[in-house]
Amino acid sequence: MTLYHPPREQIELADVLNALGHPIRLKIVRSLAEQGECACSAISLDISKSTATHHWRVLRESGVIRQQQSGRTIMTSLRREDLDARFPGLLGVVLGGRSPELAAAAGHPGGDTA
Amino acid sequence: MTLYHPPREQIELADVLNALGHPIRLKIVRSLAEQGECACSAISLDISKSTATHHWRVLRESGVIRQQQSGRTIMTSLRREDLDARFPGLLGVVLGGRSPELAAAAGHPGGDTA
DNA sequence: TCTAACGTACGACAACTTTCGTACCGTTTG
DNA sequence: CAAACGGTACGAAAGTTGTCGTACGTTAGA
């Protein structure tokens, strides 16, 4: 069980967009943004375990999320810093609000995506 | 030949991301952003005509581009306003630079975000 | 140690995508 | 009118994706 993650510099925009271009994966990413790091089972999806594993893999291998084993669960989190470094603003757009960059540039404090 | 376009309010993020999550379509969108409105044949892709038609259709039906017949060519353009209204900043991210919104909010033309 | 929980691995299958060739259609131009 | 041009429509083939069930591996706890 290797859990491959691409290094930051190898994260490709087309791969990321492709990974995010599916309703279930978009939901996963939004839940992750809300809840922060959490076990896979903390995000309830109405699909089988093996299908869920497939979607986590797509997100992980495209560079959107990071997964690491911790006890008998796998803790999953958004690769916010890597994504922001590589494609500034993308996460903000995807999370449905203003991007943190946009809020910062406008000079409003507390511009955090809920 | 109906050339369906979704109305602005029906443009879905997942569909747009999915459409953009393919190298050829990403290239089309970037060319369109550079060149402005143009005939399909003005963007050279190393694929057959029917394959190109397929990719234009995906972009059109997801709401990314607009196509209208003009004489014997079809003029194609980015749906910038619709996309900016629906998903502010997305186009900026995809076009590889800062978003126009970000630059406007920052209020200085040459502002370089680290 | 035995069992339960969490999640992956594998194999299968259906559905969708990507690609192409060929045929076609509407417009312009000789 | 006929031919050339720009592009779509259709059908087919190959590849990829999304889905599931079952089996498995690891860790935690009784």
Structural features, described:
Chains A, B: Keywords: DNA-binding, Transcription, Transcription regulation. Chains A, B: One of its GO terms (molecular function) is DNA-binding transcription factor activity. Chains A, B: Residues 5-98 form the HTH arsR-type domain. Chains A, B: InterPro entries: ArsR-like_HTH, HTH_ArsR_DNA-bd_dom, HTH_MetalResp_TranReg, WH-like_DNA-bd_sf, WH_DNA-bd_sf. Chains A, B: This is Transcriptional regulator. Chain A has helices spanning 13-20, 23-35, 49-62, 80-86, 90-94, 100-106; strands spanning 38-39, 65-70, 73-78. The first copy, chain A, has 114 residues and is α+β, with helices and mostly antiparallel strands. Chain A has one domain (8-106): Arc Repressor Mutant, subunit A. In chain A, strands 1-3-2 form a three-stranded antiparallel beta sheet. In chain A, helix 1 (13-20) runs antiparallel to helix 3. Chain A binds chain B through residues 13-23, 26, 87-90, 92-94, 96, 98-99, 101-102, 105-106, and chain B through 13-23, 26, 87-90, 92-94, 98-99, 101-102, 105-106, 111, 113. The first copy, chain A, binds a DNA duplex (30 and 30 nucleotides) through residues 1, 3, 22, 24, 39-41, 47-58, 69, 71-74.
CATH class descriptor name of chain A: Mainly Alpha
**CATH arch. level architecture of chain A:** Orthogonal Bundle
Structural class of chain A: alpha+beta
Q: CATH topology of chain A, what is it called?
A: Arc Repressor Mutant, subunit A
Uncertain segments of chain A are: 101-114
What share of residues are in beta strands of chain A? 5-15%
Mean pLDDT of chain A: 86
C-alpha termini separation of chain A: 33 Å
Count the beta strands of chain A. Answer: 3
Number of spatially distinct domains of chain A: 1
